[in-house]
Design brief:
With 551 residues, the chain is mostly helical. Helix content is 43%, strand content 10%. The protein is built from 22 helices and 13 strands. The strands form 5 sheets. It has a 3-stranded mixed sheet, with helices on one face. A 3-stranded parallel sheet has the order 2-3-4. Strands 5-6-9 form a 3-stranded antiparallel sheet. The protein is elongated. It binds one RNA strand of 76 nucleotides through strand 8, strand 9, helix 8, strand 13 and helix 13.
RNA sequence: GGCCCCAUCGUCUAGUGGCCGAGGACACCACCCUCUCAAGGUGGCGACACGGGUUCGAAUCCCGUUGGGGCUGCCA
């Protein structure tokens, strides 16, 4: 017998039936506000309680579902009226990963595009691996990128009652069975099997559930189809799905279960997540059906292509640089990061690369998301960051750069920093740096007692035969010259002419002597800002060092 | 191994059967501009993985091959 269980996600339009069945009481205001809380309020979902009050959809007839409180048709109704509800559900086992950030972003964009709700849910069912500080880190990284949850963060750790109710329901319905096998026992038995995975050993043993892991009885025949907004129908034959564990022997729920229960209770209409979760989706679907008995409440799915490294492997916490926080730390702008991430898998219908948030929101479509994995290309991110940096007003740039000028990060003694001096140089610096972390390198010579000594630069200087003469002449001329960039420029040009050399040749030793580097902001402005006294002193010191080097 | 996903320049992509002798962006190279660097300008290199079909016509549809990836845990 071949049963085709047709499980499909819905487009908003595809659930009209539900709409007809259910008396609607549309609410204008956002659910959070209806609760008397701000849109960004951090509320706790009362576990397993009646959540309809939170929903965009008013309590409906046929209310309490099997899981205790979920309104089975609410999600479908919400979808039908455009009340999209999406969620980002990270597990707090580390910093926010750029891949997760993109998934969050696509959820957020879709929510904004459809005027829906963006829910944040912390999937912390694995107490062994979760750490509280990661939760804060994830929330602040999301916030940095401009994504504030409309609801949440909800924590799975606070919803155990809801899971236990769901587990009881499934158990009583005969969808589960207790399993006493250890991993080793299973491995030993299935090693020689053609189809690996659990062999169903305990399926008919009728074991007591107390103290045992609970497995889901996957139908032996038939298929489960995931209708994916990005990939189309993906068919999984039940034969290939083992009886998976849904509850640990400790009684704690596992990801597939908690995830589904939450999506039901939170009335999620669209599940947008990484493609790595696609293989576990039919399991969730099976649980969903067992719990709800009606596919009408099923959310639509959209499995995003993964972000990969140069070896085209999934970005990993261990070998790749994936923490959003670390990009922030290096001085990437949130807007640039967001823009770049958005373009990794989606492109603007008008072909624009630099987009405002409004433009992204307006043009974003799940159905237009690419199917193939995308390489996280630092080069392009940097280009984009530079574009954003250069597009800022000088004041905004100064504010953005401030953290990198602070005592804990800047290499100079705090008391030597001069806001006015930095302001003067800021426009010149702004158009040269790729990330804010490079700002100190551009201006450190202004605030350091002595310019730092860059080995390569000094080597070049000492190899330049004309350097001593250039320095000597510069010393003489700068002592007399009127002190402005313009006059210093022409005086130095005259010096070059005198020596029969190009200006770009003579400016080099002067730059190294004064700033310690071969590259930096325009030289003559730098000299003007630094001041005659310091310039002459540094020129002299360099000349001395050069002489000494030569014996 | 099994199941699943994917396949256009080095990279991100446009392309939804004729407008494609494949367009843009990043990167790279050359030249110009230039006090270094950056920016800017001009030009260049550079791809439909392969093989079969379907069709008057295929990058676009179908099948297969190859290649890559993901999943395969009492993690999520």
């Amino acid at each position: 017998m071949r049963v085709q269980r047709r499980v499909h996600g819905h487009r908003a339009r595809g659930v009209r039936g539900a709409r007809r069945r259910v008396p609607l009481r549309p609410q204008r205001e956002s659910p959070a506000r209806a609760d008397g809380q701000g849109p960004h309020g951090r509320q706790q979902l009362p576990d397993g309680g009646d959540h309809a009050r939170r929903g965009r959809v008013a309590p409906v007839a046929g209310g309490a579902g099997a899981t205790g409180g979920a309104t089975p048709v609410a999600a479908a109704v919400a979808a039908a009226v455009g009340g999209t509800r999406v969620r980002f559900a990270p597990s707090p086992t580390g910093f926010l990963h750029v891949g997760s950030a993109r998934a969050a972003l696509y959820n957020w964009l879709y929510a904004r595009h459809t005027g829906g709700i963006f829910v944040l849910r912390i999937e912390d069912t694995d107490t062994e691996r979760n750490r509280e500080e990661w939760v804060d880190g994830i929330i602040s990284s999301l916030s940095w990128l401009g994504m504030e949850p409309d609801e949440g963060p909800f924590r799975q750790s606070a919803r155990t009652d809801a899971y236990h109710r769901a587990i009881d329901t499934l158990w009583e319905a005969g969808a589960l069975y207790a399993c006493g096998c250890s991993r080793d026992e299973i491995d030993a038995r299935t090693k020689s099997n053609a189809t690996p995975g659990y062999d169903g050993f305990c399926r008919d043993r009728g074991l007591e559930r107390e103290g045992r892991a609970l497995r889901f009885k996957v139908p032996e025949d038939g298929t489960t189809v995931v209708h994916d907004l990005i990939r189309g129908d993906v068919v999984f034959t039940h034969e290939a799905i083992e009886d998976f564990v849904v509850v640990k022997s400790s009684g704690a729920p596992l990801f597939v279960l908690a995830n589904v229960v939450d999506d039901i209770d939170m009335h999620i209409t669209h599940v947008i997540r990484g493609e790595d979760l696609l293989p576990s989706t039919p399991k969730g679907l099976l649980i969903w059906s067992a719990l709800e008995g009606d596919d009408a409440t099923l959310p639509a799915f959209a499995h995003l292509p993964l972000l990969v490294n140069e070896r085209r492997q999934k970005l990993s916490k261990r070998r790749d640089d994936v923490a959003v926080e670390s990009y922030q730390e290096r001085g990437y702008l949130a807007a640039a990061m967001r823009n770049y991430l958005t373009l990794l898998g989606w492109s603007d219908p008008q072909g624009r690369e630099i987009l405002t948030v409004e433009e992204m929101v307006a043009g974003f479509e799940l159905s237009e998301v690419n199917h193939a994995p995308a390489f996280f290309d630092l080069k392009k991110l940097e280009w984009m960051n530079k574009e954003y940096l250069r597009a800022m007003s000088v004041d905004a740039f100064i504010e953005a750069a401030r953290p990198w000028l602070a005592p804990d990060r800047a290499p100079w003694p705090p008391e030597r920093f001069d806001e006015g001096v930095f302001r003067t140089m800021a426009p010149l610096v702004q158009e040269r740096v790729g990330v804010l972390g490079e700002v100190p390198d551009m201006v450190d010579f202004l605030f350091l007692e002595r310019p730092l000594v860059d080995e390569g630069s000094w080597e070049a200087l000492s190899k330049d035969d004309s350097a001593p003469a250039v320095l000597d002449r510069a010393l003489a001329i700068y002592r007399e010259s009127e002190w402005s960039a313009e006059t210093l420029h022409s005086a130095t040009q005259a010096l070059a002419d005198d020596l029969g050399r190009k200006l770009n040749k003579v400016q080099a030793p002067i730059r190294v002597a004064v700033t310690g580097r071969r590259v930096g902001p325009p030289l003559f402005q730098s000299l003007e800002v630094l001041g005659r006294e310091a310039v002459l002193e540094r020129l002299g010191a360099a000349r001395e060092r050069l002489g000494g080097d030569r014996g």
